[in-house]
Amino acid sequence: MDLRVLKYFLKVAQEESISAAALKLGVTQPTLSRQLHELEEEFNAKLFNRGCRGRRITLTEKGAILRHRAEELLVLADKTCCELSCCESLSGNVYIGYTHACLNELGILGQVASDLRKVHPEVNFVLKSGSWCALYDQLERGTLDLCVVTDDLELCGMESMSLSVTTAPLGFLVNKTSKLAKKKELMPSDLNNISLLLPEDDHDRELIFEWLSGASGKISEGGSYEHLLQALAFVSGCDDNWAVACFKCDAIPPAMFFVPAGAAPLKNLSAVFRPNSVMPPAAEAFLKGLRARLSEK
């Protein structure tokens, strides 16, 4: 399996068009088509649903599996090249994962990254969000160098460093015309008969339901979202009886308002990484800088 062909495959999957992918890759359409057909023959599987000319092409079920694996393989290949590089200067990517509950607490990582790039400007940082289960799998496989999570999670033998004692505040995004927008903070009973959009992340949902358990009536779950921007766009078109449960972020549309949840539990945050693992030099330098920064507190 050729890594170059996997890059071709991923580009076509991203562009949903062979012609657009060929243009960005700098190869001819016939060459790209031939490489994709050879890849399908190698796996003895159809990877793309090819429609009529001019229509988007989509991945089959097996194509979606290959896309997921190909992304991981290319990250590992990139990390391996960086680890084996003989360059005297430090370079390469540091892959950092985080759960949505930790979004507003990434500032300390930015401080360490800034300090590191002043000395080693060729070091880059790749941020990946997701559920703890998904991040843990990537951490185990080596496609992530470290993760920022709430430390009430099961660490399963991972090593960790405590970052802070609070997470971003739990709250609810509502339309400014909603009666909830007039409150300084919300209690669970305020959300009776309100349709809630909840995050898909299992751990975030657990924290929210823990707080909602004090509601006197039945909580109405109106749906779920993967990315907060999706939820905001959706609820902006709903009536005032909708709210988005989330951990506060700074990018709030003008037509919406964030109301914090009263008496919400505080959680500790930790940076989690594999113990006794061989890290890429850039990730190792970042982790060393993080330890130094935390020791100053």
Features:
5-stranded mixed beta sheet, 297 residues
Task: Summarize the model shown.
The protein has 297 residues and is of the alpha/beta class. The chain has nine helices and twelve strands.
Task: Please outline the helices and strands.
Blueprint: H1 3-15, H2 18-25, H3 29-43, E1 48-49, E2 58-59, H4 61-84, E3 91-98, H5 107-119, E4 122-129, H6 132-141, E5 146-150, E6 159-164, E7 170-175, E8 195-199, H7 202-212, E9 220-225, H8 228-235, E10 242-247, E11 256-260, E12 269-273, H9 281-295
Helix pairs in contact: 1-2, 1-4, 5-9
Task: Give a verbal description of the structure.
The chain is α/β, with parallel strands linked by helices. Helix content is 39%, strand content 22%. The protein has helices spanning 3-15, 18-25, 29-43, 61-84, 107-119, 132-141, 202-212, 228-235, 281-295; strands at 48-49, 58-59, 91-98, 122-129, 146-150, 159-164, 170-175, 195-199, 220-225, 242-247, 256-260, 269-273. The strands form 3 sheets. The protein has a 5-stranded mixed beta sheet with strand order 4-3-5-12-6, sandwiched between helices. Strands 9-8-10-7-11 form a 5-stranded mixed beta sheet, sandwiched between helices. It has a two-stranded antiparallel ribbon with strand order 1-2. Helix 5 (107-119) crosses helix 9.
